[in-house]
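Hi X.,

You mentioned you wanted examples for the new student's onboarding notes, showing what a folding record looks like when two proteins sit in one file. Here is a clean example. The first protein comes first, with its sequence line followed by its structure tokens.
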Amino acid sequence: MSLPLNPAMQATDVSPVPEAGRWIAGRTFPADRPLINVSQAAPVAPPPEPLRRAMAEALMQEPASHLYGPDLGLPALRAALSEQVSAQYGGTIRPEQTAITSGCNQAFAAAIATLAGPGDEVLLPIPWYFNHKMWLDMSSIRTVPLPTGPDLLPDPKVAATLIGPRTRAIALVTPNNPAGVEYPPERVAAFAELARSRGLALVVDETYRDFHSRDGAPHPLFEDPDWDETLIRLYSFSKSYRLTGHRVGALMSSPARLAEVEKFIDTVTICPSQIGQRAALLGIQTLGDWLAGERREILARRASIEAGFPKLAEQGWCLKGCGAYFAYVEHPFALSSDALAKALVEEASVLCLPGTMFEPKGATSGRRHLRLAYANIDADGIETLFDRLAGVSFER
């Protein structure tokens, strides 16, 4: 007799990144055509040397780095991040409105856990970030798909028509994962006004904020002194300082909500990584110029995508979105993108994710799109990627 399984967990789709990893498990690729992996949006290079050195010193010399810390994060890091974001956005964020989490995925999970329960609803623009959808499914919270236009931007007027009595929040990701598009400041502000007028939370995931092409604040929401009555802002140190394995993220909201978040964190991880938090703090304090250089490099890769795409456009491909770590492309083939993505491993030694992993099952749009995560390929790698994609031939 087998043990029972949670039906909500069973009904949740498998995570796309490990699923795609199984497509190449045990495979070897030709020496003249090595694998190009554009499936995951995470830096593979280690943190910069000053961070690694400081982390090693903390490991060896700070006994507290091995102990439980405060559930909501190190006070010094909460204060430093609050000050930094206040300066970046021209608003006021206090340390008591800031929590440190074990990565940004935990920040989203904690935020949703304070907002909604089984049977409630959350609006997610499509294409959506798959881990957001997975958490809602596991929590028995209904995801309400929010369609986007040809520019892959959601419309607050459309969102207003989808709000029902069980709706608890609208969740946005900007710069967007998977589409790469940056939501204009006025669009984000319009969503905040909609959420406020309907008594909902607006959850804004800004994991890729440090690679935004816009100079200055990406949105004006923190200028409102009562921002924490509506906005829940999420952030990640993983991409900014290459701390993916150390799991350090952040959540900004009202002190009252953070009291509830504390319960969630204490039950799940007790506290964020002590070593990772120390690295994040040093990054804020000393690596501003280094991070600016990382941003310039990512923006240069974005420019390479846009400059090189005509090679694919000649073959019928379309660049639908590009920014931060991502390009979202429409392919010209009869194959559904889930079959195409697997075929590209064989035909082009390219591993990418299909649009079907970012949209509701059966969605026509998902069958037409691929996500290319270019964080780990430089301009030459992008050119090689486009050469390979331009060279494949399938039925149209």
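Then the second protein repeats the pattern, sequence line and then tokens:
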Amino acid sequence: MFFGIEASDVTHMSAWLLFGLLFLSPFLQEDFGVILAAAASLAGAAPAPFLIGAILTGLVASDAWKYWMGRLARRYDWAHRFAEKPGVSVAGDLIRREFLQTMLTARFVPGTRIPTYIAAGFFKADYLKYILTLMFTASLYIAVVFTLFHSVGAVAGEEAIVWLPAIAIGILVSYIIFRWLNHRRKNEGVMTPLSKELDHPMPDMPGFEGNPLETDDDDDTAAKGGG
């Protein structure tokens, strides 16, 4: 049994219910969604291409909108708080210097994704390039997890269907708890591995107070006012 679900129960789910579950899971927690898809594949719940398609679609959809939070933060006061989060300016520096490497790192390091994806929008990275990179990094991540599950399952046998997902979830939860406790101890608030000490005001911005006031007429101009 895994989170109250027997492997046999997963196997008998309708295809669309399973697809919907995997598609929506990254909106709650991306790593959990990938682990769930890999576990379903190991249990033989559906063909691997079907499961990979479902989780890949969910991963890209769950991250596609985060770009626009960064983009809107240049214009609207209500969205500006997303760019104020610790780590966004640091991720922005990395995005501008090494876009692919930064996006790849964010995919494999929980806690860096949201600041990185918001920074991609704030610093106006090409959206098509952003989406294609999301697809590439998500595909690579899925391939690694699926390969790991099936490789270990081939050695450990049917028992791996139960304990392998449990171990993977346990590691993920332990990491999240560690990050949360570490940041509580340092009174840093937002949970991100990106160094808070390197944060700085965004380029073309008067600071984090007030509305950036970037206009629709000239999207590439600097902010004209603040506080």
